[in-house]
C-alpha cells in the first residue's frame, strides 16, 4: 500500500468516525427548520394537504410542528449523549411520521415533470421536506451500524421469490402501458379517443414536451412505467447483467447503493399504498357500494375499466418494488471484513 493510499484510508476512517455526529447535526437542523415551517403554516392558516377545495385544515400545521419537535428532541439527544436505545426509538417514530407525511410526493414529482402545476405548493413543500427528514432520521437511527472497517458485498441476484415478485410487477404494468400507447397513437379505448384525451391534457395545462411526445405516439407515463420496470429489475439483478456495458462505463466501480434505493423507496412508499387503497375503492365501486365518478370518460363503466387497469398496476408494482428494495437493501449493505470472501 502506497503512502497516498494509506493517507486516503486514514482520511476515510476519520470521516466515518465523525459520521454519527455529523448526520445527527444535519437531522437536528432539518428538524428545527421543519418545525418552523409547520409553525408558519399554522399561524398563517395555510392548509398543507390538498383535498380539491374546501376550507382546508390549517391545524395540521401544528402536527408538523409536533413532528419537528419530536425529531429535534431525538436528534438533539444524539448530538448531546450519543445514540441511546430510547433515542433510537424516538428517531424511528419520527421517521415513520415523516414518511407518512411524504405520501404521494411521487405524484407531485410526476405532475411537475409533465409540466402541470401542483395543486398546493405548501403541500408539495411539506411532502418534500418530510421525505428529506425521513431519510435523515433513518440515517441517524442507523448511524452506529456503519464503520470504516466494513466492506462492500459482491453484486448478487435476488432470491427466486423476489424475482417472481419482479415478474408480477412487470407483467401487471404491460396492460397499463399498452392502454396509454393506444391513446397516444390516436386509437380508442374505454370509449374515449386519443384526440379527446389530448384535448383534456391541453385543458389541464400539460407542458409542450408532454404534448409533443403525445403527438409522436409516445405517452410520457408509459415511458415512466418503462423506467420503473428497469429500476425494478436493477434491484433484483446485478446492474452489470441489466446493462452489460454499465461496468465499463463506471470503469469497474460499483453502482452506489443509494442511487437505486432512493427512487425505489420513494416509489414504493407512494405506489403501494396508493394502488392498494385504489383497488379497494374500485372493488366497492364494482359492488355498487360507492359511486364511481366518470371524470373525463363517457360513462362510469369506462372509468371503472381504466381505473382497474391503472390501480392493479400501481398496487402490484408498488408491492413488488417494496419487496425488491428490501432485498437490495439487505444484499448490498456493507459486510464485516471477516464475512467477506477473500478467495
UniProtKB/TrEMBL annotation:
Organism for this UniProt entry: Streptomyces lateritius
Keywords of the record: Membrane, Transmembrane, Transmembrane helix
Keyword Kinase: no
Domain of life: Bacteria
Residue intervals passing through the bilayer: 59-83, 90-112, 124-141, 161-179, 221-240, 261-284, 304-325
Protein name per Swiss-Prot or TrEMBL: DUF3995 domain-containing protein
Amino acid at each position: 500500500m502506497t503512502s497516498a493510499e494509506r493517507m486516503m484510508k486514514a482520511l476515510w476512517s476519520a470521516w466515518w468516525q465523525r459520521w454519527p455526529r455529523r448526520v445527527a447535526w444535519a437531522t437536528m437542523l432539518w428538524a428545527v427548520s421543519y418545525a418552523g415551517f409547520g409553525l408558519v403554516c399554522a399561524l398563517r392558516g395555510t392548509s398543507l394537504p390538498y383535498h380539491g377545495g374546501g376550507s382546508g385544515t390549517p391545524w395540521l400545521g401544528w402536527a408538523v410542528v409536533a413532528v419537528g419537535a419530536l425529531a429535534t428532541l431525538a436528534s438533539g439527544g444524539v448530538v448531546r449523549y450519543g445514540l441511546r436505545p430510547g433515542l433510537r426509538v424516538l428517531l424511528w417514530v419520527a421517521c415513520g411520521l415523516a414518511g407518512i407525511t411524504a405520501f404521494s410526493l411521487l405524484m407531485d414529482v410526476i405532475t411537475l415533470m409533465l409540466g402541470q402545476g401542483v395543486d398546493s405548493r405548501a403541500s408539495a413543500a411539506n411532502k418534500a421536506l418530510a421525505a428529506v427528514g425521513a431519510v435523515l432520521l433513518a440515517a441517524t437511527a442507523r448511524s452506529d451500524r456503519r464503520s470504516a472497517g466494513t466492506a462492500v458485498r459482491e453484486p448478487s441476484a435476488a432470491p427466486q421469490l423476489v424475482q417472481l415478485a419482479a415478474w408480477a410487477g412487470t407483467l401487471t404494468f404491460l396492460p397499463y402501458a399498452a392502454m396509454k400507447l393506444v391513446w397516444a397513437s390516436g386509437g380508442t379505448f374505454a370509449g374515449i379517443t386519443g384526440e379527446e384525451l389530448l384535448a383534456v391534457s391541453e385543458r389541464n395545462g400539460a407542458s409542450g414536451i408532454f404534448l409533443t411526445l403525445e403527438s409522436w405516439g409516445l405517452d410520457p407515463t408509459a415511458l415512466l412505467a418503462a423506467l420503473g420496470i428497469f429500476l425494478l429489475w436493477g434491484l433484483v439483478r446485478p446492474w452489470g447483467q441489466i446493462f452489460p456495458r454499465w461496468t465499463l462505463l463506471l470503469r469497474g466501480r460499483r453502482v452506489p447503493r443509494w442511487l437505486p434505493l432512493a427512487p425505489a423507496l420513494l416509489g414504493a412508499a407512494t405506489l403501494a399504498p396508493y394502488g392498494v387503497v385504489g383497488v379497494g375503492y374500485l372493488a366497492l365501486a364494482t359492488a355498487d357500494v360507492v359511486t364511481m365518478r366518470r371524470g373525463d370518460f363517457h360513462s362510469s363503466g369506462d372509468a371503472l375499466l381504466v381505473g382497474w387497469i391503472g390501480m392493479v398496476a400501481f398496487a402490484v408494482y408498488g408491492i413488488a418494488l417494496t419487496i425488491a428494495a428490501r432485498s437490495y437493501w439487505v444484499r448490498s449493505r456493507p459486510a464485516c471484513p471477516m464475512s467477506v470472501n477473500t478467495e
